[in-house]
Specification:
The chain is of the alpha+beta class and about 100 residues long. It is built from two helices and three strands, in the order E-H-E-E-H. The protein has a three-stranded mixed sheet with strand order 1-3-2, covered by helices on one side. The radius of gyration is 13 Å and the shape is globular. The protein starts with 15 loop residues before the first strand and ends with a helix.
């Protein structure tokens, strides 16, 4: 069973964290509540993995270096200008699908 929990970024990042990335824009508005040092590390990881944020893409990084996480799930949103409520719902479904495939 997947248990989704929303917590203030001030609580710190732990466990499995999902981030949504728009194409060509690495970790904008919603992720801005995360500590800048952690955002920088996540951006570096995305760059190392050549992650572009293409719509429908997703990746799971296990125990990402420099972060106190078990997993970082990254889901592409496509171009920010094309983001619609349906596209956001599809991205949520992609995140769920990746999480459901993780042994827990």
């Amino acid at each position: 069973m997947i248990r989704v929990q929303f917590a203030a970024a001030a609580a710190g990042l732990t466990g499995t964290v999902v981030v949504f990335v728009a194409e060509g824009e690495l970790l904008q508005a919603p992720a801005s509540g995360i500590k800048e040092a952690d955002i920088k590390k996540i951006r570096e990881l995305l760059a190392l993995n050549d992650y572009k944020g293409k719509k429908g893409s997703s990746d799971v990084l296990l125990r990402p270096a420099g972060l106190p996480l078990d997993r970082l799930v990254v889901v592409g949103l496509g171009k920010a200008s094309a983001l619609t409520p349906l596209a956001a719902q599809e991205a949520g479904g992609a995140a769920y699908a990746r999480l459901a495939g993780i042994p827990g």
